[in-house]
Amino acid sequence: MSERLAVHENHTVIYEIVIEEDFKNLKSELNKLNVSKRKLCIVTETTVGAIYAEEIKKILEECAKEVFVFTFEAGEKNKNLYTIKDLYTFLIENHFDRKDMLVALGGGVTGDMTGYCAATYLRGIDFIQIPTTLLAQVDSSVGGKTGVDFDGYKNMVGAFYQPKLVYIATNTLKTLTKREFLSGMGEVIKYGIIKDKKFFYYLQKQADNIKNYEKQALSYIIKVSCDTKRKVVENDFKEQGERALLNFGHTLGHAIEKYLYTDMLHGECVSVGMVGAAFLSWRKGYLSEYDRNEIIDLLKLYELPVSENRICIENVLAATGSDKKMEGGKIKFIVTDEIGHSFVDQSVSLSEMKAALYDIAENQTKI
Amino acid sequence: MSERLAVHENHTVIYEIVIEEDFKNLKSELNKLNVSKRKLCIVTETTVGAIYAEEIKKILEECAKEVFVFTFEAGEKNKNLYTIKDLYTFLIENHFDRKDMLVALGGGVTGDMTGYCAATYLRGIDFIQIPTTLLAQVDSSVGGKTGVDFDGYKNMVGAFYQPKLVYIATNTLKTLTKREFLSGMGEVIKYGIIKDKKFFYYLQKQADNIKNYEKQALSYIIKVSCDTKRKVVENDFKEQGERALLNFGHTLGHAIEKYLYTDMLHGECVSVGMVGAAFLSWRKGYLSEYDRNEIIDLLKLYELPVSENRICIENVLAATGSDKKMEGGKIKFIVTDEIGHSFVDQSVSLSEMKAALYDIAENQTKI
User: Fold this and answer.
1) I need a labelling partner for B55 at 20 to 30 A (CA). Which of A3, A11, A14, B182 fits?
2) Which residues in chain B touch residue A98, judged by CB atoms under 8 angstroms apart?
3) pLDDT value at B329 more than 60
4) A238 pLDDT tier (thresholds 50, 70, 90)
């Protein structure tokens, strides 16, 4: 059940996303990248590294010149320039040059940091991604966003930089906690809402299979998610237009995450944010109440939160205002007028956002 | 005597280099970039800032939404991630977003750092360059190389990132020391040697005018230098092939600079490195003794060093070996077989390089 997708830039294939059940075909994919004379450095964190680093290192050693492993302490709090500096130093000490390559092994934090290091070490060296969380597989596999947090600001420092290969083994999802897996489903559901009605209802019908890690279903939802993101990103590499749609649920979601990141996972915040965005879409007369309820029900089906009363409305509102999506003072809010279709709305006012936050905080149960 | 050059990527104009005598036309150039709703941050260092920051700030304020000045302490020793972090913090504190822009005002250090900050702040914001040294005008204006030193290694951390405009005012050259100006001539002469025989002899004939800052001559040599670099870079944006020619004189020059950077300027090291490269080109039978002497004589005419006996041959040799131009173990040495033509030679051995260093250190006077 191997699946593959080609990602393009200016109509040229720049890399492939390979979706497999396990790591059996990693070696043959690597050989296509002519790694025999190159040094590779696996970049991973303590949790994922403990499970997969040895296995991956063995596979890499069968095809590369030399393989190193750089492990940092797991956690978003280490996604910063200090870890990047440690990695630069590690690469210098091991004489990595422009022809060598990094291998990101882990979730979004690992992928973002490895990509950023690859983008900036010697003005750019190659890297590949082996994402091991659902969130990383369906989100950071495509789009070339790399970066680190700075001074408490998420992804303040970064670059657009593309990998040479993304290799996804769906088996790795079984080593996630159930909660982490379901958090990733938040982003998967997002793709259905913003672009693909058929997919939305597939997720509704196949919920049991997906939640039981049925391999064909997993492979399919990852493929569709990556493909949807691919199409959006290919039309808008530098995030000037259509790519904004991917922020559906993220304007409020990020703001909530800023305050509740110790208690909530990213996909959970996005879930709550999507409930808010659905409320706003309904309130502004774009979305039917029926579709709004369908969205909420699907999130519930995947055990994702659809309300959150621990937030201070004023704080969260202020956080959306300082969000990077504010451009020239106007917020680009993503709304939906029908499941499977979304658009940018620059007419959303602060008071409407406030109403959405009240909905999230209090009124949710009324639906 | 305004001159302008368009720099292309994939056959599309990405920015222009405007060469003027002074800053009179800066405002109209900025207006073309739609800066009226954007914040600008002038990035400069203590020496250049003291001379030009106020003048430039005034001009910018006439067209931009708001103008800030970030000043760091002059000197290559501050070209590091600490200064970059200070600049990130300054931008965050002043609420710079993706639509805002940086203005590099100064020499190569300022340009490299400002470009690197622009490349990585919020995954990339616009920047323009106002280079005030001859070296920065003829070298870093073209090519998109940005970066900082790390852990004692030059430009170890960086990115390829293009400005939106390069505005050169030749008047600024008069505020350089004569030695700094002549150091820049090292790179100018390099363009003649590697690509343009006619230009080489122009530099020979016009030496007096150039050394007296005659404005038409200055404007012309900057234009030809930028244009030569432009053509090379456009053929090879990511430094895979032809761009290596720009390293003529730099393999040995950088290695010498590593040890003598406190005493010698970059262009002076390159001058000595070019003498070594000319020796090697002659020794390998590519270059005539006549042309070799022509090269040495032109460097002398611009009061540039053509020998250097303070170097430890073994140290410098080791430094060339660890140079980034080593790829897969083979050094890509740039040689010339005739003034105006150069090529990559991968057959240069360590003992031949050693001979070149002996020539630089001892035998130079024999010619």
Assistant:
1) B182
2) 324, 327
3) no
4) low
Catalytic residue among A38, A79, A145, A190: A145
Q: Answer whether B52's CB lies under 8 Å from B42's CB.
A: no
Determine how β-strand A165-169 pairs with β-strand A153-160. unpaired
Catalytic residue flag (residue A266): yes
* CA A250 to chain CA mean position, Å: 12
Per-residue pLDDT at B264 exceeds 60: yes
Q: Given this model, what pLDDT does residue B118 score?
A: 98
Residue B154 belongs to what H/E stretch? Answer: strand B153-160
Residue of B84, B123, B243 to mutate for A, most A C-beta atoms under 10 A: B123
Residue B241 pLDDT exceeds 80: no
Q: What is the DSSP letter of A153?
A: E
CB contact under 8 A, A119 and B10: no
Q: What is the pLDDT of residue A154?
A: 84
Distance CA B245, CA B342 (A): 7
Q: Is the ipTM of this complex over 0.90?
A: no
Say which amino acid occupies A149: D
Using alpha carbons, select from A293, A306, A249, A303 the residue that is nearest to residue A273: A249
Instruction: List the single best residue of A120, A237, A330 to mutate versus B (max B Cβ within 10 A).
Output: A120
Q: Which of A38, A154, A195, A250 is catalytic?
A: A250
> What part of B 219-258 touches A (C-beta under 8 Å)?
238
Q: How far apart are CA B84 and CA A148, in angstroms?
A: 14
Please confirm, yes or no, whether A243 is among the known catalytic residues. yes
Is A145–B159 a contact, with Cβ atoms under 8 angstroms apart? no
Q: How many CB atoms lie within 10 A of CB A21?
A: 17
Q: Which of B195, B203, B225, B352 is nearest to B277 (CA)?
A: B352
Interface of B with A in 269-288 (CB under 8 A): none
The three-class DSSP label of residue B333 is strand
Sort out which chain B residues have CB atoms less than 8 A from A120's CB and list them: 120, 157-159
B106 touches chain A (CB under 8 A): no
- Please name the amino acid found at residue A291: D
Give the lowest-confidence range in A207-221, B47-61, B252-266, B279-293.
B252-266
Question: For B284-323, where are the alpha helices, taking DSSP H only?
Answer: 289-301, 313-321
Q: Which of B92, B93, B120, B149 to mutate to test the interface with A (most CBs of A within 10 A)?
A: B120
The reported pLDDT for the residue numbered B365 is: 46
CB A187 within 8 A of CB B125: no
DSSP state of A170: G
What does the pLDDT read at residue B325? 45
Residue B11's pLDDT is 87
Q: Does the active-site annotation cover B341?
A: no
Q: Is the pLDDT of residue A343 over 70?
A: yes
pLDDT tens figures, A11-45: 899 999 999 999 999 999 999 999 999 999 999 99
Please provide the average confidence, as pLDDT, over all residues in chain A. Answer: 92
Q: 3-state class of B7 per DSSP?
A: strand
Task: Find all residues with CB under 8 Å of A83, minimum gap 6, and list them.
Answer: A72, A113, A148
* Residue B273 binned pLDDT confidence (cut-offs 50, 70, 90): very high
Query: Residue A168: what pLDDT?
Result: 98
